[in-house]
Amino acid sequence: MAAGERTLNEVQFLTVAEVASVMRVSKMTVYRLVHSGHLPAIRVGRSFRVPEQAVHEYLRESYVGVESA
Fold it and tell me: Which residues lie across from 15 on neighbouring strands?
């Protein structure tokens, strides 16, 4: 196992509604991110579950900092 990887029983999965709450966006926005491949998810029945770490990584990579002049 590579450094930083977790076993499946250590991974915390979030529902689409929980991801939307964390990101403060609509559930439709989360669905779009999942379907476009920007946010990894697994399908459980008819719903999706997103690894919590993937949400934090997405937000970290998407962060737009203000550069000083």
Answer: 49
pTM for the model stands at 0.79
Within a 10 A sphere around the Cβ of 17, how many other Cβ atoms?
11
Q: CB neighbours of 39 closer than 8 A, spacing ≥ 6? A: 19, 30, 33, 50, 54, 55, 58
24: exposed, middle or buried (C-beta count within 10 Å: 0-12, 13-18, 19+)?
Answer: exposed
Q: What would the pLDDT profile of 38-55 be if each residue is shown by its tens digit?
A: 999 999 999 999 999 999
| Residue that the structure tokens 């000083």 belong to | 68
